Amino acid sequence: MGDGDRKRELTHALLERLIHYYHFVASQVEEQQSSTVTSAEIAKLVHTDDTLVRKDLAAIGVRGLPRVGYRSAEVLRAIHRQLGFDQPSQAVVLGAGRLGGALASYDGFDRYGLDICGVFDTDPDKVGAKVGTLTVRPIEELGEMVRRRGISIAVLTVPAEAAQRVATSAVEAGVKAIWNFASTNIVVPDGVFVRHEHIAVGLAELSYLLKSG
Amino acid sequence: MGDGDRKRELTHALLERLIHYYHFVASQVEEQQSSTVTSAEIAKLVHTDDTLVRKDLAAIGVRGLPRVGYRSAEVLRAIHRQLGFDQPSQAVVLGAGRLGGALASYDGFDRYGLDICGVFDTDPDKVGAKVGTLTVRPIEELGEMVRRRGISIAVLTVPAEAAQRVATSAVEAGVKAIWNFASTNIVVPDGVFVRHEHIAVGLAELSYLLKSG
DNA sequence: TAGATTGTTAATCGATTAACAATC
DNA sequence: TAGATTGTTAATCGATTAACAATC
User: Fold this and answer.
1) Residue B119 and residue A66: Cα distance in Å, rounded?
2) pTM of whole model > 0.90?
3) What's the Rg (C-alpha) of chain B?
4) What per-residue confidence (pLDDT) applies to A93?
5) What is the pLDDT of residues A176-197, one digit of tens each?
6) B55 touches strand C (CB under 7 A)
7) Is the CB of A34 under 7 A from strand D?
């Protein structure tokens, strides 16, 4: 990317906040008649500070109107563009257990430019089953589909002992990022992103807050 | 809590790192014969810096051995104590769909002092079904179970339109924290913790990294 | 001892918050 | 105008990193 490129690297925290803003502003637009939203309103919904909201919006080029707030449509459009929701990423889910099924049939992804376009499993009993609008396919067909459709992301929900093997074959087929729900580390070549999702963390944190707070 | 109390408030980030350390040190103990681990080894597994690992461990009172590292058992014990894994928190899952089922049957919680002891749904077709070792119960029985067993956490996986209603009845029954997977905000009285889990964030972030990095 | 590793202080960095000016 | 809200700079805070001393 060139020096003059508008798109700067967003930090994890900012990215997360922008997605939250997007979510809540979109909800507000659906539920209410108002076409504008103030930084204080967004801040309240997202449990953060209004100054931070203004700074974040300024960072992605949204200008507000003093005494009015921000035009909701403009906020949505800016986040949409900044996060590249208009260039959808295609993903496959590997493992058609309960978690894989939940993720594959979750209909909240498309709003964020995410398209789950396949579910795979090794278990012959699961192959052929319907998961939402998708049909579970045998894992042998993964490589062909990834190559043919240029799929870039794999969502890994297989058991820990299969995780490395399945991840390796996904990467060999051309996947560039792995969202890993298996409770084990996986090793991938340089240039492949891995995000390890540690599902117990959220609950453990709540539990800790209860005990200490 | 008194001034002299040992247990200080842990930040979100530190809490998350400690859980990761716990997870990986425990795995390492299971897999290898070594009973010690260095800060550099932990740092590599968790993708962070070895200085930070030493600082974190010092913060929870673990002392290492120069030229050797840390005794794995001591690391585990300290995190275990600090995070209160020995005083288990009991939780119920509300909503027995795919996601609720996945969470209710996930066996990785107990290691962190978390005990899922009930699954509830309104759908008569789901009531009575087995989810892991649990049986789905009608939501009408929620209050009684929460009161009788002193359950403090509810994991909310019902559809958005039911979220507020179900959350309210859980709070009325005595639940003190809600792990909210419904894609809507819920309002609770002061003193009740809510953690909103926005499932699309992880995937959206990977997608963004692919497009920009 | 020499060397590897921990432990800790200081420096840096970035994110958040506070203050207030600018604007309609 | 007065007042509500954005926009932006400066101050603060906390987390991370770097440097290096302490230790076995």
Assistant:
1) 49
2) yes
3) 20
4) 98
5) 999 999 999 899 998 999 999 9
6) yes
7) no
